[in-house]
Amino acid sequence: MARDRKPSRHRGRVLAASVAALALSGTALAEFPAAAAGKPRGHDVSSHQKNVDWRRAKHKGARFVYIKATEGRNYRNPYFDQQYSGSRDAGLIRGAYHFALPDKSSGKAQARYFVRNGGGWSADGWTMPPALDIEYNPYDSKHKCYGLKKARMVSWIKSFSKEVKRLTGRRPVIYTTTHWWNTCTGGSAAFAADHALWVARYNTADAGSLPHGWGFWTIWQYDNGGSLPGDQNLFNGSMAQLRKFARGS
Question: What is the Cα–Cα distance from 238 to 217, expressed in whole angstroms?
Fold first, then answer.
């Protein structure tokens, strides 16, 4: 995903530089990965994409999309309403994500801000569960883990998750990278049992593993550019399973 404050430094390049990303289930990543066969394609957008042509995106193969709603506790994507309603009108399953700034306020406070500003969920079959985007600090390279010790970071994520669950009825999907997770949480396995994993991996030159604790990915962000607006994603299942996931089954 992307931070919206300084669009000249896209988050994808930060990830690509810091993450050795790899093969999933033994399949090497490519511009359009072989693992895509039969899996619904999706993408994620932020204010960088502005007013998206959603019907064109669906025509090009999009079946779901995540849209940036908020960042920290004082930023809301100014294009969120167009993106969120427009994608639904075009027939895409859509959801909202929050870009975490754990050094700015508590997980509970940011979860409340997120849900109030687009991060809700309903079991209508068209709404993805809320998602937490948590990755290396894009604003301060000297404090990549936002100045939090591993235990405090785990507590922050738990606080965010608990409040999202209380307010929406769903645990958030966790978007991260293997390198960030293992570095900044110490490879915590506390979330794998009840949080879907959205993993970002781009580079085909190296191999690696999923973040500690998870045995499989639910969503795979495999490229930060392609035929769909924003970042390119796959859902790890069939279209019928994607609809069930959206409904909360």
Answer: 14
